[in-house]
Amino acid sequence: MIRKLSTGKYRIYSIKVDAKTHKRKNLGTFDSLEAAKQHEREIQYFKHK
Asked: Residue 39 is part of which domain span?
């Protein structure tokens, strides 16, 4: 899940909520939407390898 921050950057969050903190995990912050989408594809690739 990619969200735009108030600073203009994009952050990737996990889809599932963490059981302990009841929040989503921060998976990285990126300057552009394209960079965030690329990293999300890389995450999905290694999750299903």
From this structure: 2-47
